[in-house]
Amino acid sequence: VAMPEANHLMTEEGVSTGLFCVADQKIHTDWTYVGEGKGAFTQQQVYNFVGEQRGSFDKHETKTYSHWRPRLCTLVLLGIAAVALAVFALVQYLTLGSATDASTCGAQDCLCGFHTGWEDDKKVWCCQNHG
Question: Which residues lie below 8 Å from residue 40, measured CB to CB, with a gap of 6+?
Answer without folding.
Answer: 49, 50, 51, 52, 53, 54, 55, 57, 58, 59
